[in-house]
Specification:
Elements lengths: L1 H29 L15 E7 L4 E5 L2 H27 L4 H17 L2 H8 L5 H20 L14 H11 L7 H9 L23 E3 L5 E3 L16 E5 L1 H4 L4 E10 L7 E7 L4 E6 L8 E3 L3 E6 L6 E6 L7 E4 L2 E4 L1 E11 L2 E11 L4 E5 L2 E7 L7 H10 L3 H8 L8 E6 L4 E4 L16 E3 L18 E3 L5 E4 L31 H10 L7 H8 L8 H11 L7 H11 L12 H16 L7 H16 L6 H4 E5 L6 E4 L10 E6 L5 E15 L6 E5 L18 H5 L4 E2 L4 H6 L1 E8 L2
Parallel strand pairs: 2-7, 11-20, 23-26
Antiparallel strand pairs: 1-2, 1-29, 3-4, 5-6, 5-22, 6-26, 7-8, 8-9, 9-10, 10-18, 11-17, 12-13, 14-15, 15-16, 16-17, 18-19, 19-21, 23-24, 25-26, 26-27, 27-28
Helix pairs in contact: 2-3, 2-5, 2-6, 4-6, 5-6, 9-10, 13-15, 14-16, 15-16
C-alpha cells in the first residue's frame, strides 16, 4: 500500500511538473510564427549611421527604404527593450511579457481588430510606403538575429511591414481617449460625463475595480483594457509659431514642446534622416515607426498637440433572448463573436486566458451586465496615416502639406506649422465622424437604426483652422481651437457645427499663454523662450477652486492643517522653486488638474491638504522644503545615473506633469516636457534648429554615455544643436558606421 501511495505521489508530482513546464513554454510554440518582410531575402539594404556628440543618430541611405532600415537598427541599438514591447503589442502577445497589464493591451488588439485592419488595407498602400515599412521590419529582424540574447520572447521575430502597420492601427485611437470609453464599458462602470445622462437601467457595481501596479511604479485600475503610459490625454503639449513680422528679426520660429512619457512605447526618440531620394527630416518618432512624426525638413516643419474632439460614439444594441443576435433596421443580425487566448505572465508561468470579442455593423461590441454596447470611432478601419506621415515628411510647400492633411487619414492631433516662406498655420486636425445633424451624439445612441452608423470623416474644409493670422502668432496648449491667435484672429465658435464635437475647455497652460502673448508687441527669441519656460499659473478654473476650497477648511483644533492652510494662502501661484509654498502647492495642484481634465469629481480639499502636509513632514520634516528637493529628474542605475532638481508643475508651460513617488518621498518625474525643439527659418539662410530631451538617446542602455547626457542641459533649460546638414553632422560625429542587411 505504501509503495502504491508513493508511486501515486510521484505520478501526481510528475503531472504537476508537466503542467508547470507546459505553462512556461506553451506561448512561444503556439503563437503564430512570424514571417520576414516581403522581398527581404532578395533585397540588400545599406545605411550609414552617424551619431552626434549626444548620440543622436543621423541615418543616411541611397533610397528612403535604406534609411528606414537604418532607423530600425539605430533605434534598436538604443532601445531594443521598448521596441520589443511594441512589436509584442502588434502581435497580440504583450501579456506574455507584461502580465495582466499586457493582456489588457492584447484584449484591445483583438477587440479593435487591429490585425484585420492592417491585413485589409496594408496591401493597398503605395508601393514606396510599403517598401519603407518592409525595410524597417528587416532592420528589426536583423538586430534581433544578431543580438539574440536581448530577445524577450520566443518566436517574436521575424516581423514584416504588416506587423508594424498593425501597431499603428492599435495605438492611434488612444491618443484621443478611446480607453476612457472601453475601460468603463468593460468594467460596467459609469461612462465619462461627456456621454450625457446615465443609460436607463444601467446600474454599475459600486465595487471599485482592482488596482494593479505598473512597471513604472504607478497604479491604474485593472479593469482598464489598455495602459500605454500616457495617463490619458490630459497631460498635453505646447506649441508656438511666430511669423517674421512678429519675431522682431524677420525669422519664422516654430517651437515643438510635446509632453509625453519619458520612457516606454510613446516616448520620443530623436533622429535625423536623409536619402538621395529627397527625404531629409529632423525630428522624433515613437518606437515602432520608420519616420519622424514631428520636426522639420529644409522647407517647413510642424508639431502636434493632443486635441479632444468627440471622436467616439456608443450604441446600445437590442439583443435577442439568445444574446447572439442584434436588431438593425427591423431585422435580426448575427453578432460576430470570436474566442481568443490572451497570454498572461505570472512569474515564470504564462497562463492562457480565454476571452470572447464581439463585433456588429457599428464596430467593436462590449457586453457587460448592463447590456451590449457597440463602439464606433474616428479613423476606424483606416491605416492611411502610414502614408500620410511619410508624405508630410517630404512636403515642400504649405499647399502640398495641407493637401496631405486634407485626406483626413491622420485620426487626431492639432498641427502647428511654420515654413521658410514665413507662413504659419494652425489646423485642428481630426478625422471627426461625418455625423448627420440632429441626434444627440453626446449620448448613448440606439443601435437599431443604421442611419446613425456614419461613414468616413467630415471634409477638411469643415475643420477649425487659421492660416497666417494678422497677430503674427499661433499657439496651442491642448485647449479649444477658439483661442489660438488672439481675439482679432480667433475662430468664431458659431462657425463650427455642433455635431463636430469640438472641445470647449481651456487648460491653465492655454490661459497663461494668452496672458503672456498679449503683453508683447514683438515676440523675439528670448521672449519666446521666457514664455515657453514660464512656471506660473492663472488663478482660474480648477486652480481657483482648489485655493477657495482650502481657504474654506475649518482648521479648529488642527494646528498642522492650519499652518498648511496659511502657507498655501501665501503661494505666489508659480512653481519656480523660489517660494516657500511651492512644494505644498505642487502636491496639491495635480489632483485638481486630473479631475478637471478627466471630468471626474473634484477632490476633497481638507483630505488632500492633510495628505500633502503629512507627506512633507514625514519625508522632509517641514512644510517648506525647497521644491527642487521634492521634484527630481532621476534616471538610473549605473555610472551615468542622475538625480537632479527640477522646476515646473502640472499644467505649467514648463511642464513637470506626472511623477512616481519614490521611497525617500521625492517625486521622480516621468511625464512632462519631453522632446523640445526650436526651429528657425531666417531669410536667405538654411534652416537651423536646436533640441533637448530629459535623458539622452540611449534611454534603456545604462552603460552608454548617452544614457543621461542631456539631463543637465534639460534641467538648466538649455538646448543642444540639431545637425540637420550632413557637413555639421560629420564635424560633430561621435561615431560613424555603415550597416547592411544580411
Amino acid at each position: 500500500m505504501k509503495k502504491w501511495l508513493a508511486r501515486s505521489g510521484w505520478l501526481l508530482l510528475t503531472a504537476v511538473l508537466v503542467v508547470l513546464v507546459g505553462l512556461m513554454v506553451w506561448e512561444p510554440f503556439l503563437a503564430q510564427k512570424g514571417r520576414a518582410a516581403e522581398g527581404s531575402a532578395s533585397r540588400t539594404y545599406e545605411a550609414e549611421i552617424i551619431r552626434s556628440e549626444y548620440g543622436v543618430p543621423h541615418i543616411y541611405g541611397k533610397t528612403d527604404a535604406d534609411v528606414a532600415y537604418g532607423v530600425a537598427i539605430a533605434h534598436a541599438e538604443d532601445d531594443f527593450f521598448t521596441l520589443q514591447d511594441v512589436i509584442a503589442m502588434a502581435r497580440g502577445r504583450y501579456g506574455a511579457i507584461a502580465g495582466e497589464e499586457g493582456a489588457q493591451v492584447d484584449y484591445v488588439y483583438h477587440l479593435l481588430d487591429a490585425r484585420g485592419t492592417a491585413r485589409r488595407h496594408y496591401p493597398g498602400l503605395p508601393a514606396d510606403t510599403r517598401a519603407l515599412f518592409e525595410a524597417y521590419a528587416t532592420g528589426l529582424n536583423q538586430y534581433a538575429e544578431e543580438n539574440a540574447g536581448e530577445v524577450k520572447l520566443g518566436n517574436l521575430f521575424p516581423v514584416n511591414g504588416e506587423d508594424v502597420a498593425t501597431g499603428f492601427a492599435l495605438r492611434q485611437p488612444f491618443f484621443f481617449g478611446l480607453n476612457n470609453v472601453i475601460g468603463p464599458l468593460v468594467a460596467g462602470e459609469p461612462l465619462p460625463p461627456e456621454f450625457g445622462p446615465a443609460i436607463p437601467g444601467y446600474d454599475p457595481s459600486e465595487t471599485a475595480p482592482p488596482i494593479m501596479n505598473n512597471p513604472d511604479g504607478s497604479e491604474t485600475a485593472a479593469a482598464l483594457p489598455i495602459h500605454m503610459g500616457e495617463d490619458g490625454a490630459m497631460a498635453g503639449s505646447n506649441a508656438w509659431a511666430i511669423a517674421p513680422a512678429k519675431s522682431g528679426d524677420g525669422v519664422t520660429r516654430l517651437v515643438s514642446n510635446s509632453h509625453q512619457p519619458w520612457r516606454g512605447g510613446v516616448a520620443w526618440y530623436e533622429l535625423v534622416v536623409e536619402s538621395e531620394e529627397g527625404w531629409h527630416y529632423a525630428g522624433a518618432n515613437f518606437p515602432g515607426s520608420p519616420f519622424p512624426f514631428l520636426g522639420h525638413n529644409e522647407h517647413l516643419g510642424w508639431t502636434n498637440t493632443v486635441n479632444r474632439p468627440d471622436m467616439t460614439d456608443i450604441y446600445r444594441l437590442e439583443m435577442d433572448d439568445s444574446g447572439t443576435r442584434y436588431r438593425l433596421d427591423g431585422e435580426w443580425r448575427d453578432l460576430e463573436s470570436t474566442t481568443v487566448t490572451l497570454p498572461v505572465r505570472m512569474g515564470p508561468l504564462v497562463l492562457p486566458v480565454r476571452r470572447t470579442v464581439h463585433r456588429s455593423a457599428h464596430g467593436p461590441v462590449i457586453i457587460n451586465d448592463n447590456g451590449a454596447f457597440a463602439i464606433r470611432y474616428g479613423g476606424i478601419d483606416n491605416i492611411g496615416q502610414l502614408d500620410a506621415y511619410y508624405r508630410l515628411n517630404k512636403a515642400e510647400t504649405l499647399a502640398e502639406w495641407e493637401s496631405v492633411l486634407a485626406r483626413m487619414d491622420i485620426p487626431s492631433t492639432n498641427f502647428i506649422y511654420g515654413d521658410k516662406d514665413g507662413n504659419i498655420a494652425y489646423v485642428y486636425n481630426a478625422a471627426i465622424p461625418n455625423r448627420q445633424a440632429g441626434p444627440n451624439w453626446r449620448g448613448i445612441l440606439p443601435g437599431n437604426d443604421s442611419s446613425l452608423i456614419w461613414q468616413g470623416a467630415v471634409d477638411y474644409n469643415r475643420l477649425p483652422k487659421i492660416i497666417n493670422p494678422g497677430s503674427g502668432w499661433l499657439y496651442n496648449a491642448n485647449n479649444q481651437p477658439y483661442s489660438a491667435a488672439g481675439p482679432a484672429d480667433d475662430i468664431d465658435p458659431g462657425s463650427i457645427a455642433p455635431e463636430l464635437g469640438v472641445e470647449l475647455k481651456m487648460t491653465n497652460r492655454a490661459r497663461r499663454t494668452e496672458e503672456l502673448m498679449a503683453q508683447f508687441d514683438i515676440i523675439d527669441r528670448p521672449t519666446l523662450e521666457r514664455i515657453k519656460y514660464d512656471t506660473g499659473y492663472v488663478r482660474a478654473d480648477y486652480v481657483s477652486t482648489m485655493m477657495d476650497g482650502v481657504a474654506a477648511i475649518d482648521t479648529t483644533g488642527k494646528p498642522q492643517l492650519a499652518q498648511a492652510q496659511t502657507l498655501l494662502a501665501s503661494w505666489d501661484i508659480t512653481s519656480d522653486n523660489i517660494g516657500d509654498a511651492d512644494a505644498l502647492a505642487l502636491l496639491m495642484i495635480r489632483p485638481w488638474m486630473g479631475a478637471e481634465y478627466q471630468n471626474q469629481p473634484l477632490p476633497d480639499a481638507e483630505e488632500e491638504l492633510q495628505q500633502a502636509a503629512d507627506h512633507l513632514m514625514k519625508h522632509f520634516g517641514t512644510l517648506t522644503p525647497p521644491m527642487s528637493d521634492l521634484l527630481r529628474l532621476r534616471q538610473g542605475p549605473g555610472k551615468y545615473a542622475v538625480d537632479l532638481p527640477l522646476d515646473g508643475g502640472s499644467d505649467t508651460l514648463r511642464a513637470s506633469t506626472l511623477w512616481n513617488v519614490d521611497e525617500d518621498g521625492r517625486l521622480s518625474v516621468r511625464h512632462g516636457d519631453s522632446f523640445l525643439m526650436f526651429i528657425e527659418w531666417e531669410p536667405g539662410q538654411p534652416v537651423r534648429s536646436q533640441s533637448i530631451q530629459p535623458f539622452g538617446a540611449a534611454t534603456t542602455r545604462p552603460d552608454s554615455p548617452h544614457f543621461t547626457d542631456q539631463a543637465a542641459l534639460f534641467v538648466r533649460k538649455e538646448l543642444k544643436p540639431v545637425h540637420f546638414w550632413r557637413v555639421d553632422a560629420l564635424k560633430n560625429a561621435r561615431s560613424r558606421k555603415t550597416v547592411r542587411s544580411n
